[in-house]
Amino acid sequence: MKNIIVVGAGASGMMAAINAAKNGNKVTLLEENNKPLKKLLVTGNGRCNITNMTWEGDVIRSSNIEKAMKIINKFDYKKTIEFFNMIGIATKNRNGWVYPLNDSAAVVAKTLISVAEKEKVKIKTNQKVISVSKQTDGSFQVEVEGWAYKADAVIIACGSGAYISEDGYKLAETTAKKYNARFEEFLPALTSLKTNDSSVYKWAGVRTEAVIKVIYDGEVRHRQKGEIQLTDSGISGIPVFQISRYVSKALKRGRKVKIIIDFLPEYSEEDIKSYLEFIRENYPERTDKQLASGLIAERLSEHITSRCFDLEDSIENIKNYVFRVSGTGDMKASQICTGGIDIDALTDDLMLSKVPGLYFTGEVVDVDGTCGGYNLQWAWSSGTVAAQAASKQ
């Protein structure tokens, strides 16, 4: 029997603790917050998008996507669904997006905690880990305020700082740097984008289908289509979330980033012009704002026409609206972060190559995904793989 300590009781940490305990180990789970799985409760708007059945395209982002997928495939979405079914969480499929049948993240959290307790995992909350150190005898010392735990193996799963106010996630960075492992700074991902244009307050509250293109260094870098949300400070919604990690990185590198928005992607400029000229001919008393509001939301029409000289200028802005990005949502307002320990500093079982017995899982590894359950799948997969390896190592 090994003594294994897991730092962080989020999704990956809880999964690691359960699997390590199932393998016959003595497991202690240390959590800085006053309760486990705090972030899980808000995933999927409280419904908990457990995983996804579709793995095509740009759904996982990392410096080594092939390695990340190799780890995910060791405990893939099929095994995830089977695991949750076996512990009493029935699931349903919504076009590939998998949710609990009861749409309750709270029940998922309670069930995982009950399984951990059944496996005799010691869950200790309000435990802020200060440091993790390898000892000369090969063991580890895990230091908290006023105490030090001994362990044969340690799994660091303390998250990235997204959606939480505590700073325990910084432990991953200090530990990685202690052992000279490359660590990318955490930056907001799956988040909103902001602009310095104060006039956008006019469009606040509008939801609309659009195509958005990310441009920096003079090139179109990324493209997304779907429903975006217009806010009093910028833009949000799933299409925006999907490209936000790239915008975060570009801004950090000093790039000037702009988003080109097509508010009527199904129609050409010529189609729009012909239609509006026809309406104007029959209703010459209508203003440009009134004409545009026959095609797009009134508040969006008000904003666009207020910055245009004539109808042709308005049409150009409807099809090629220039949104100059000044920043992203902050860490606490972001669903996840990009960044963390370089996956290539870890083995295929997520052990730090230079330090046998020390593992990193979940968001502290520089792997992130798009919306749709991909980040939770990474949590379940990485937690399971690390725990199984720690049990055998």
Distance between the termini: 12 Å
Helix content percent band = 25-40%
Largest sheet: 7 strands, antiparallel
Low-pLDDT parts are none
Key words describing this protein structure:
393 residues, alpha+beta, elongated, 5-stranded parallel β-sheet, 11 helices, 7-stranded antiparallel β-sheet, 22 strands
Characterise the protein shown here.
There is one protein chain. With 393 residues, the protein is α+β, with helices and mostly antiparallel strands. The model has no long low-confidence stretch (mean pLDDT 96). The protein is 32% helix and 26% strand. Helix 1 runs parallel beside helix 4. The protein starts with a strand and ends with a helix. Strands 18-17-14-15-16-13-19 form a 7-stranded antiparallel beta sheet. It has a 5-stranded parallel beta sheet with strand order 7-2-1-11-21, with helices on one face. A 3-stranded antiparallel beta sheet has the order 3-6-5.
Structure summarized in a few sentences:
The protein starts with a strand and ends with a helix.
Topology diagram in text:
Blueprint: E1 3-7, H1 11-22, E2 26-30, E3 51-52, E4 60-62, H2 65-74, H3 77-86, E5 91-94, E6 97-100, H4 105-118, E7 122-124, E8 129-134, E9 140-144, E10 147-151, E11 153-156, H5 170-178, E12 183-189, E13 193-194, E14 207-216, E15 219-230, E16 234-236, H6 238-252, E17 258-262, H7 269-282, H8 288-292, H9 298-306, H10 311-319, E18 321-324, E19 327-328, E20 336-341, E21 358-360, E22 367-369, H11 374-392
Helix pairs in contact: 1-4, 1-11, 2-11
